[in-house]
């Protein structure tokens, strides 16, 4: 038996560098600095769980209340959480945490299925587990099983006919406010991300009532009254039941047609939509390094852009306090297959609209400049991955200068002209490294293509052509005057 409210089950790091295991209410103890699970995705999910527990039991009513209650109070949290303990048994009789209310018939799957990067049954049978793994976890101790179960329900990818993705789709992008300059008390991070609201009820937890099936009946669970309630942190898209032997989980029974969530906005994720009036969709990370090229719609909001929306956790932080950074995390997925778990720390952008407009322009100019470089490399690199790798390198090599310019923007300056020069120098640096060595060994048509491509690149950074226009317009620079009869 494991009760996730009363019992100590969460491994954590402490301020003195040691490790211990705590009950959830002890997240408010001063020496606890962070969860210490063996996987990055479980640590992020654990932060979401702790935020969700506070939102369930003792959320702030408004910004004033949030500011007034910033000091940690472990005893208050212990008392508030204890009212929900009956809903947080992992195994045993009665309703069980994040599991179908009644027993599920059928053979159990290996416990590996609770990990996104594990091979499914068909994948293992067909020896197709290249990006995923099999057989790593023959059994799970109850605490690890509890955290794996929560992580799976929160981030679940598509899993075959009837097996629903999480409320935010497979491997959603998570953005958490990190108010601490160094690794300080965990409570500061948790409290920074708890939405305003009112305490939930036991019946708000989906395993405390019959599952809303999404089979032929086509039922969908919409958020009651607002864009989310406590179920956002405790969604149950998968119908699961854990099988145990000798205080360990050895199998998982799964049935299809769990809850289909529509219209929900998780407060810790950014969203987008394809057009006005369309459904809001959660954003997902792309593979590779998360850098400034990924900021738009995740960290930076474009003025009058009604098709993207930052996570609630970020949009209210300026009013609450405004300083700190942002933890960005999530599984990059290729359809049902995980590629990598993205984890990054980025600055929180507390900018007025004019400064944000300048910042957005810098990012858009870099996007157009990198596209110009990619196109110019056609004589020396084949289309596809090779050129996209150079485009990614372009962003990496310009990132330090971009962050320096961010400081200028925060101070009210506009570094657009200097940024244009930075972009031009990096583009030519990459182009010349790839095209100049050995150019005398090429035939004349190949040399001409390279010379013409370099000329095209120079024209783009002078404001000519499609990419040149995009660069200059993003930076608010005057386009070159077209002379009569001049082709551009």
Count of extended strands: 12
Poorly predicted ranges (pLDDT <50, ≥5 residues)? 121-132
Number of helices: 13
What's the main sheet like? 3 strands, antiparallel
Note the run of SSEs as H and E: EEEHHHHEHEHEEEEEHHEEHHHHH
Query: What's the end-to-end separation, in Å?
Result: 74 Å
Structural class: alpha+beta
Outline type: globular
Mean pLDDT: 92
Describe this structure in words.
- The chain is globular.
- Helix 10 (385-410) packs antiparallel against helix 11 (416-435).
- It folds into 2 domains: 10-282, no CATH class; 351-488.
- It contains 13 helices and 12 strands.
- With 488 residues, the chain is of the alpha+beta class.
- The termini are far apart.
- It has helices at 40-57, 63-68, 74-82, 121-125, 142-155, 186-193, 312-315, 317-320, 353-376, 385-410, 416-435, 444-460, 465-475, and strands at 10-14, 19-22, 32-35, 140-141, 174-178, 239-245, 248-255, 271-272, 281-282, 308-309, 325-334, 337-347.
- Strand 8 and strand 9 form a beta hairpin.
- A 3-stranded antiparallel beta sheet has the order 2-1-3. It has a 3-stranded antiparallel beta sheet with strand order 4-7-6.
Outline:
It is built from 13 helices and twelve strands. It has 488 residues and is α+β, with helices and mostly antiparallel strands. It has a three-stranded antiparallel sheet with strand order 2-1-3. The chain has a three-stranded antiparallel sheet with strand order 4-7-6.
